[in-house]
Each structure stands twice: as C-alpha cells, then as structure tokens.
Amino acid sequence: MEFGIVELSRLQFAMTAMYHFLFVPLTLGLSILVAIMETVYVMTNRPIWRQMTKFWATLFGINFVLGVATGITMEFQFGMNWSYYSHYVGDIFGAPLAIEGLMPFFLEATFVGLMFFGWDKMSKVAHLVVTWLVAIGSNFSALWILIANGWMQNPVGAEFNPMTMRMEMSDFFEVLFNDVAQAKFVHTVSAGYVTASVFVLGVSAWYMLRARHTELARRSITVAAVFGLASAFSVVLLGDESGYSATHSQKMKLAAIEGMWHTEPAPAPFTVFGFPDQQARETHYAIHLPFMMGLIGTRSLTTEIPGIADLVASAETRIRSGLIAYDALMHVREARDAADPAVLATFEQHSADLGFAFLLRKYVDDPRTATEDQIKAAANDTVPTVWPLFWAFRFMVGLGFGFIATMAYFFWRASFRQMVCPRWALHLAVWMIPAPWIAAEMGWFVAEFGRQPWTVDGILPTAMSVSELSVTEVALTLAGFVTFYSVLFIIEMGLMLNYIRKGPFQDVDETEAWNARHKDRLAGRRNADAIATPAE
Questions:
Q1: Strand-pair category, 270-277 with 282-289
Q2: Is the full-model pTM beyond 0.70?
Q3: What are the residue ranges spanned by the domains of the chain?
Q4: b/e per residue, 7-39, with b = 16+ CB within 10 A?
Q5: N or C: which end of the chain has fewer CB within 10 A?
Q6: Cα 128 to chain center, whole Å?
Q7: pLDDT band at 58, cuts 50/70/90?
Q8: For 218-242, how does the pLDDT look when each residue is reduced to its tens digit (9 = 90+)?
C-alpha cells in the first residue's frame, strides 16, 4: 500500500470536512436564534420581531442549503476513499449515519419549506412550532454525526468477530451514550451557538455603524449578546469536560496537546506557552500554571497524567501483545470451526491489543515478521506531530475567552447603557465575525489530527483504512472537490453579503397597523433610538 494514498485520502476528507463545517455551526446557532426571535414576536405581536425573524431566517436558509450540499458528498467518501474502514466498522458507524439521514434530515427537509413559505398560511403559533422543529432537527443532525465520530474516538459497544474480520455492534445504547460522543455533541453545538451569536452581533454592529436598521440591529445585538454569553461560557465548561474524558480514552492526544513528554508528579501543571521539540522530546521556554492540568484532566490533586514517553512504552507493550492476538487469529481463521479452544482463549485474552499489531502493516505485510526496530518504530508512530496540536489548542482556547469578554461587554452595554456603544467596539464586533469559524476549525483539527495514527482509536490504523486507489485518482478527485467547494463558498459569500447589504424586508401593512395602535409608545421608542446612536 502506497503511503501517498493515505496522505492524499486524509487531505481530501479533511478539506471536504472543513469546507462543510464552514456552514454547520452557523446553521446550528442561527436556527435557535431565529426561533427565539419568533417566540418574542408571538409573545409581543410587535412587527419588528417578525421583521428580525424573517431577515435572519433568510441568511439561515442560504447557509442551510449549502451546508446540506457539502455534507452529502462526505458520506460517499467512506465508500470511495475509505472502503476498508467502511467494511471493518460499517456495522457500528453506519447506524448513526443512517439515523441521521432518516430522522433529523427529513425533519428539517419537511419543515424548512413551511418555515419559509408558511407565514401567511399558518397561525402564528403553528409557524412558531415549525420554526422550533427546524432548529431541533438541525441540532439532532449534529447529534448523530457526533455519535459516529465519538465512537471513532472511544470505540465502545462493539466486538471484533474473528470469522468475519470485522467489528460488530454489541450494545447500541453504549454507542449512543458514549461519554466522548455526548461531550463532543454539547461542546460542538455550543460552539455553533457562539458562531451564530458573533455573526448576528457583527452584522448588527455594521448596521449601527451606518445608522441603518438601528431598531432591528439594537434588538439583535441584545439577543446575540445574551445568548452568546451563555453559550461562550458553556463552550469553555464543556471543553473542560472533553479534556477530562480524553484523560481516560485518549491519553496520547492529551499528552500531545500539552507537550507533556514525561509523566509529571500529580497534580500536573498546564503549559501556557512553549515551543515543543519532538526530536529532543522537550518543550522549550515553557511557562506553566501549577496544578491546572491535573485539575482539568483528573479532577483531583493526586492522580498522574502519563507523559508521551511512558505512553510510547505502553504502546510497544501493546504491540507485542497484539502480535500474540494476530498469530492466534491467523490460526483460528485457518481452522475455522475446528479451532483449538486454547488458541481461541489466547486470542480473547489479547484481542484488545489486536489493533496495535495492525500498526506494523505500515512496515510489513505480515506483522509476525516485524523486526525489533519496526516494533519500536510502530510504537513511536502512536505519537502525533505535537507542535501543531499544541498551538492549535491554545489558539482555540484564546479565542474562546475572547468571545466571553466580547459578549460580556455587549451584554453590559445592552443591559445598562441602552445599547450605546463606542465605534471602536462596533468595529471590533464586525472584524470578529470570522473568529468563531477559525476556532471551530482549530477544534476539529485538534480532535482529528490528535487521533492519528488511528482511524478508530486503538482499533484500526489510518494506513489500513484506505481504498485501493491510485495517486492520480485521489489527486484528481481532491482537486475536483476543492474547486467545486470553493465555487460553492464564493456563491454563499456573495448571497450572504448581498442580502446583508440589502437589509431586512419590512412588512409595511403590519407595521403601519401596529404603529397606529401604539402611537405614544412609538414616540418614546424614537427617542430611545436617538439615544442609542453610536458614540464617537
């Protein structure tokens, strides 16, 4: 198997996944914000909230359509580029993907049309229910995808069948309630809420700077700041939970993120800054926060977190154990129904380490013929490249705390300063719009790159998972996907910017009717809008 195929296949899936995830977080968060705005409209019957709902729903719809278009092709890649992976773990991985297609996807597809075209054909309450069902469907789609991904990070509820050479599901509910999957779901969804909040905040700030649609912008900033502040706090707290779960299920990833080359005495410090040197196995110029990593990773002051060197030694031990399992497996397959019970017992005893023996397939066709040097090399392969993980994680965390500070500031302005904001703050909100997407992409990079060299952690190495394709075939499809997705991204950006420049559509008849019923209140509101003009 050519190593170039593995790298190209990984790059292709990474590119398509990262393009797709440009649309996902905004869909998750904006669906909830639109539902909140329509809820306020139904409760107050004020036309401005209907106008807000329709405007932000239009931007949601553009993003939603392109998110669906880019997401469908990803599922086909499992059969195209990762056929052995699909064969080996399809019994487990395919179940949540199928449910994702059958339940949330159809829930969204059924109700999204009613959401956009049912305003004058349904009662207000019925339309509100439809809007909330669209939001729930969007979030349920993320749930099933992240259950599938969480199983790849922490493969539970499945057993290896030596007769079929495949993983088979043994407990669906264990897969469903996998701790890693649940932590990833709430963390990812919260990140989507932050993304939408920053987006709404930035666009509204742009309107405020130009003194356009100020009534809509002021209310949108208030909703975004309140929702975004709660979401930003939850992202940090739920990220802490993901770190705690990694201590048990993905020790090597956690050690690489920390640049922790050797096991530290409990409680381990958190490395705020440093330059990881993989060759020297040392982090230069490291600045530590005492006790913090121990508290985050173990919730205690007495439990050690193993370092990379100790984990490599453990991987070598597991490779040797896996070789025993692999040898027994070959005998079982040769004997079939007449397999020696003692051989079966040996296989069962070491079967948990079989995946580590598969790491040797990168070097030899038959792992049993591997040399000592190849075993040591395979053990060292369990260490991902440390420096990009180290810095991507810190960049993501830094942005997360920046979101908390920004949302807290605008929440304070909305709550206690009648939405009077200095122009520098409004400019900051506009320039911050891309930041949550950068943080989300960094998060996925840490999650997926940190799992290497595994496709399914501890079970199936990435080098074994790919299809038997030529370098030319994968390179051509990679170029095609990148070109096509780039065109879609440009189209989406053009449509979004066009609708933002055009601004919200005003329902003149309903607005005039409401104004006629509330003349005195309208006069007071105009005075408030004058006060809320951006300060120099």
A1: antiparallel
A2: yes
A3: 3-250+387-521, 308-380
A4: ebbbebbeebbbbbbbbbbbbbbbbbbbbbbbe
A5: C
A6: 28
A7: very high
A8: 999 999 999 999 999 988 887 777 7
